[in-house]
Amino acid sequence: MTDAAIAISGLSKTYAGGKRALDDVSFDVPRGQIFGLLGPNGAGKSTLINILAGLVNKTSGTASIWGFDIDAHPRNAKAAIGIVNQEILFDPFFTPIETLEIQAGLYGVPKAKRRSLELLRAVHLEDKANAYARTLSGGMKRRLMVAKALVHTPPVLVLDEPTAGVDIELRQQLWAYVRELNAGGVTVVLTTHYLEEAEQLCDRIAIINHGRLVANEPTRELVGRAQEKVVEVTVDRDLSTAPAASCFEKVEAAGRVLTITYRKDVANAGEVLAAVTRDGYGIVDVSTKEPDLEDVFLSLTRASNG
């Protein structure tokens, strides 16, 4: 048994026609974490998830889920993972409770061990248990998809763009539930276009671009890789021209406010402020903008496009 919830090694996928969706991708998802899988549209994220789900055949490489190789032990591997797809997929003529009961039956969960009502309660759909699924709102349908992925109590849950097109309140409800599941021992893999969500939720993040892995680090370390910082300096008199210094990457002046961009690997904030005072300005106020995941994401994907 591996300690990884998901272990991927040398995974490649080339579709008929020659499109290479995954190119020798290797990484592990540690057990017990919330793991972010990020990348631009068409980067290969959905192909990777579909390989884990058994919906797409890989070209080469290996993948295992909870220690079970997806080729050698496909039934065990599938039983260890629940997947919430981007697309909302279920029969609109079944009620939520029927949907969960049927899904549990497909996974061979004995009636005595089914948790259908408990799951509907957890995703705030208990009062809709007997409503036709087609009458549910988009947000309710998405919550039902999460419950559906959990009927067989998998140790790994994959959420593929779960908050795409949903309102802020529902997004917050979903994330609260994800944190609750994770606290209960479920390993969560999350793909999202909302980078601030990934930054707040994920313990570790992997970034894929053009089918290749371009980063795989703890979130804090990844954010720490952003080299550009911005400092906003308010000075004691109006600025006729913006001061210049070799440690400034970029500088903008408006009224009495200077917005200075500098690189952490070239200078520090003290040197930037000293350059301002050398020009005879008194400093009244200073604020800084820390780099975030979006800065890192853009720099890494641009670099891998080159």
From TrEMBL:
Gene3D superfamilies assigned: P-loop containing nucleotide triphosphate hydrolases
Keyword field: ATP-binding, Nodulation, Nucleotide-binding, Transport
InterPro entries hit by this protein: AAA+_ATPase, ABC_transporter-like_ATP-bd, ABC_transporter-like_CS, ABC_transporter_ATP-binding, P-loop_NTPase
As one GO molecular function, the record gives: ATP binding
Query: For the ABC transporter domain, which residue ranges apply?
Result: 6-235
| Family to which this protein belongs | Belongs to the ABC transporter superfamily.
Name the UniProt record assigns to this protein: ABC transporter ATP-binding protein
Q: Which organism is it from?
A: Sphingomonas donggukensis
